[in-house]
Amino acid sequence: MTVQVMEMAWRLDQAERSAQPTGQLTATEPELDVGTAYRIQRELVERRLKRGERLAGLKMGLTSRAKQAQVGVDDVIWGRLTDAMRVADGGTVDVSRLIHPRIEPEVAFRLGEGGEATAVAPALEVIDSRYADFRFALPDVVADNTSAARFVVGPWSPVPDQLDNLGVLLEVDGRVVQTGSTAAILGNPRRALARGLALAGAAGVLGGGGAPRSGAGGALQPEPGWVFLAGAATAAVPLRPGSHVRAVVEKLGTARVGAV
User: 229 is in which domain, residue-wise?
Assistant: First the structure.
């Protein structure tokens, strides 16, 4: 299925670059499986790296039980972040370059050697499925790099002993639109971190310079400073031009972004 992998990655890349949706891959390839979908994801991100972007971290998807049940799976998925996806805290996102963006509050870890969490921060992730109507099957969203589009990281702080039940608010234009808890992230964001690094390590993720960075047994060795987005603590909401969004995570602080 090598040719299909290249062709499907090209389709998704073109959709992202043109901000025009494409049809589900599974509509034309109903036998597409998750393993092949991760190969498409890797080729998709490689296209970005060849244009000068660098890997900046990893992200999780489907970390809440509700989302897993919605798509009929019992495990998480993971994707890759690049430096071009990062938006400064308090910065702006140009939504005209996206298809149908949504935004959600997250917890971010800063990684050191060996995947150790050296700091934690409140974060926001902008997701933007490249599929029409934001509809997809599991292999589709895996291939689409788990809908990764943009991310914002608030101030870093030392990792506290307890991260398993911190309150989370998502505010749009000063109004609370979603409330949740870090418990929605696999019960504890630390658990999402461990699971994500194990999955990515087994897949042999490359370092930002393009060379493998693996330790004993092929375990992932992230580059120091990589960001790890542990997963959403609430449902995502549409991100519209002119809006100002803030994530508030108990004990961790806030992350902010505007949309133009």
Answer: 2-259
- Which of 159, 177, 174, 156 shows the shortest CA–CA distance to 105? 177
Going by C-alpha positions, the residue among 5, 2, 247 that lies closest to residue 126 is 247
What's the CATH code of the domain at 98?
A: 3.90.850.10
Strand 102-111 relative to strand 237-238: parallel, antiparallel, unpaired?
antiparallel
Cβ neighbours of residue 114 under 8 Å, at least 6 residues apart? 215, 219, 221, 222
Tens-place pLDDT, residues 114-161 = 778 999 999 999 999 999 988 888 999 999 999 999 999 999 999 998
Number of domains in the chain: 1
Name the phi and psi angles at 170, rounded to 5: -120, 120
Q: Residues 79-106: pLDDT tens digits?
A: 999 999 999 999 999 999 999 999 999 9
Which amino acid, 104? Answer: E
The set of residues, in sequence order, having a beta carbon less than 8 Å from that of 75 and lying 6+ positions away, is 62, 68
Of 120, 127, 117, 137, whose CA–CA distance to 182 is shortest? 120
